[in-house]
Each structure stands twice: as C-alpha cells, then as structure tokens.
C-alpha cells in the first residue's frame, strides 16, 4: 500500500508560497453570541401630542404679575396722554374765546371760569313767541328794583339792554370777563330774557351766539378784569341773576332760570 509522500522541507519554506499555517477554528462551544441590538426611542417634536411642559409655580406667578403691571401701565399712560391733549384743546378754546362750561381755568386769571357749573345743561332752543312780560309784584322772593346806569335804547328795547344787530356796536370790551346768562336761544327768547333782566336791575347785551350758529346769547353788561370774576361783587351779581331767573321761569314761564350763568372772556 502506497503512502502519501510528505512535502519536502524546501517546498514548505519556499518564499513564493509562504509558510503553511494551519487554521485553528474555535469549537462550537467557545463562540460568543452577538450583543443584543437596542433601538433608540424616536425623538418627539414640540408639537407632538401628549407632550407635557412643566413650569414652576413661581415663574407662572411672576409672569402673571408682569402682565398685570403692563396692562395697568398702559392704561395710566394712555390716561395721562389723553388728559394733556384735552387740557391743550380747552386752553386753545379759552384763548380763542370759545370756552364752554367745562370748568377750565382762565390762563390769565388762573382761576376757574365757571366753578360749580359742571352739571349745567345747555339752554334749549325755543322758537315760540316771547311771553308777555308782566311787572312782578314786590314780594319776598321777587328781586328788588336797582337803579342802573342809562343805556341807549335800541330798536324799542328797554333801558339797560343792548341788542347787537345791524349797525349797533358791541359794548363789551375785549379782555374782560362777562357772565353768559344764556348761550343758545332763539332771538325772541333772548330778547325777552334780556329785557326782563334789565327791568330788574341787571344790564344785559343780546348778540349772536358764539357757541351755536343761528342762535343768540345773553350776557351781562358789567364786566370783570382778571380774577375779579370770582370776587364778592361778581358773586353778588351772579346771585341776583339766579334770583331774577327763578321769578322769570316760575311766574312768566321763561325758557330758562339763568342758573347756568358762567364767566366768559370776551375777545
């Protein structure tokens, strides 16, 4: 029986073929199992459903306080800005001679032009014929006759009354303060009211209204400079106007009782 010839040693160390090595395979019991594969959980976005955001209670309280402070600050700032705008508008009206009964201080006299008249209502416009005037009987409530300085009689008007119409010049002096007895009346009602005041000791002037186109206004003939419209003489004149007005409205059915009289600077 023939035997397999072993390779010669020179063939085994031949550089062209390299040394022969025997592979050593591990046995089946020595092979380690592969590590388990763990998949990372999918990342969730900000808008993913079911995501909860936790905010500390202290941060929420601070954020709420800041919001409330911003709202209050915006309200206060808006109120201050609007108040300043309103004061500028009213000051411009006073300087232009168009001030109304809103209690704005005279920029020259530095005093309230119509103190205590914030709730006064505008005089209604009446176009009915003026009521027939009857000389009031002297009673405890009726105003007493006070002699006044003579005033030129114009167009059949009584002494102490001036109707500014046509070529009749306005007797009021620019820069002085006069009491506006009524500012929005028809011509007949204005003439009747001025005549009744003049007959009872209050010299008056009737002229086209500065506050309503087509209406007429009644003012006192006596004026006051600077802060004198708040002095005792002006207060006495205003009290007399209101006293005459009560009689005029109650006994003669006048459209107004002159209670809303207020100081006005003529310019």
Structure write-up:
This protein folds into two domains: 57-96; 105-267, no CATH class. It has 267 residues and is an alpha+beta fold. The radius of gyration is 51 Å and the shape is rod-shaped. The N and C termini lie far apart (154 Å). The chain has helices at residues 9-12, 57-95, 187-199, 232-252, and strands spanning 161-163, 177-185, 204-208, 216-220, 262-265. The model is unreliable at 98-120 and 127-156 (pLDDT under 50). The chain has a five-stranded mixed sheet, with helices on one face.
Would you count the extended β strands for me? Answer: 5
Q: Tell me the count of domains.
A: 2
Number of helices: 4
Query: What's the shape?
Result: rod-shaped
Low-confidence segments, given as residue ranges, are: 98-120, 127-156
Q: Residue-averaged pLDDT, rounded? A: 73
Secondary-structure element order, N to C: HHEEHEEHE
How do the strands of the widest beta sheet line up side by side?
1-3-4-2-5
Based on CA atoms alone, the radius of gyration comes out at 51 Å
Largest sheet: 5 strands, mixed
- Could you estimate the helical fraction of the residues in percent? 25-40%
Structural class computed from helices and strand pairing: alpha+beta
- Our measurement of the CA-to-CA distance between the termini, rounded to an integer number of angstroms, reads 154 Å
| Percentage of residues in strands | 5-15%
